[in-house]
Design brief:
Helices cover 29% and strands 24% of the residues. The chain is an alpha+beta fold.
Length: 374
């Protein structure tokens, strides 16, 4: 930021930097869970022993109005460009508003100055509302969409996917290097060609998952909440209130990134894209699920499992015995077929083409029993 053609400061990830003669001072900032900058401080020591000095202190009421009487600049340059929730304070013409990207926010009345362009997502609230009228729990993003507590989970998921894409790309490049002769010509063996093709598929599918996640974040109609659970995941069963408010809770197995991609990135985006829809029944007492015309619920699961496999590189479980298998013979001899004692066949997937509708339809809940998952 310049003032009268003189550099005052410039931002850096942990705060900002201000010039000091021929040197620079790094000012660090302490933020709360909503991104509010509470304290700015710097090291003024000229030795190896730190000596911290408070540059600026900021305290806010929940809706952003600044406390008066002790929020004063103590040392250095006041930074009005990163204040409440990291937003710029606009004091020109006596506005005293905060710049939230698409709209300006007035903390004195806890309202925006323009209608929310995503007002359809929050039909029970004023189109001028701020953070769902709950700034302790929610954080406003660019003034047009609530930032739920689950955003941190989404960010972590994207990081995990990007890390895996990098790893798979490195693996693919290593295969290509091994297949390159002294003249620089790449000549894959059949095994190497198959390996590269599968790695390319997984990389492409993971990038699609990132695109799908972005569709959830930018949806102008739906709100999604992420919920980590232990054990198996039941089919999504939104309530009448959920459907009426276009709010969906996406459950996934805690600690299982592949399952999180399956449930959040794929099934979540299927809702956004209209491949999977929910509606309240005529009596208003229940919810109906429907698949886009021309599609099937099994097809949606194939996509979800393929995205899961693209991260993990393998899938395993149990399926109903195929004709002629050892398990089928044992079931016939023991009279177990179609009973709770049915012996199921294990399956192991190591190629995306193995994930298909017949596999999905035959998946069972365990090694014993005739109950299928779908």
């Amino acid at each position: 930021m310049y003032e009268n053609d003189a550099l005052q400061f410039f931002n850096q990830p942990e705060g900002y930097v201000e010039p000091d003669g021929g040197a620079y001072n790094y000012v660090y900032q302490y933020k709360d869970h909503l991104g509010n900058i509470k304290l700015s401080y710097k090291n003024i020591s000229l030795t190896s022993t730190p000596s911290l000095q408070i540059v600026e202190e900021n305290n806010y009421y929940p809706f952003g109005l600044e406390h008066k009487g002790y929020n004063n600049v103590i040392n250095g340059t006041e930074n009005k460009y990163k204040t409440y929730q990291g937003k710029e304070t606009e004091e020109e013409l006596g506005k005293n508003t905060l710049a939230f990207g698409w709209r300006d926010y007035d903390p004195a009345i806890a309202r925006f100055n323009k209608i929310d362009r995503f007002a359809e997502k929050y039909q029970s609230m004023s189109p001028y509302h701020f953070s769902g009228n709950n700034p302790i729990f929610f954080r406003e993003i660019k003034g047009d969409s609530i930032h739920p507590a689950s955003q941190a989970k989404v960010d972590a998921l994207k990081t995990n996917i990007n890390t895996q894409v990098t790893s798979l790309t490195t693996q693919r490049d290593a295969v290509t290097t091994a297949a390159t002769n002294k003249k620089g010509k790449v000549k894959y063996s059949e095994a190497q060609k198959a390996q590269v093709n599968e790695l390319n598929y997984r990389i492409g599918n993971l990038n699609t998952s990132l695109t799908n996640i972005a569709s959830l974040e930018s949806s102008t109609k739906f709100t999604f909440k992420l919920n980590a659970v232990s054990g198996n995941i039941a089919n999504l069963t939104p309530s009448v209130a959920d459907v009426n408010s276009n709010t969906f809770t996406l459950n996934y197995i805690s600690g299982d990134v592949g399952n999180q991609i399956h449930e959040v990135a794929t099934h979540g985006s299927q809702i956004v894209n209209g491949d999977l829809t929910y509606s309240v029944n005529a009596a208003g007492s229940g919810v109906n699920a429907a698949v886009r015309a021309g599609g099937t619920s099994y097809g949606l699961e194939v996509s979800a499992y393929q995205s899961q496999y693209s991260y993990t590189g393998a899938l395993s479980g149990y399926r109903t015995p195929t004709a002629g298998s050892t398990q089928a013979t044992m079931n016939t001899l023991g009279g177990f077929t179609g009973t709770t004692n049915q012996i199921n066949s294990p399956f192991n997937v190591n190629n995306h083409t193995q994930i298909n509708v017949p596999l999905i339809r035959s998946m069972t809940e365990g090694s014993i029993g005739h109950t299928t998952i779908y």
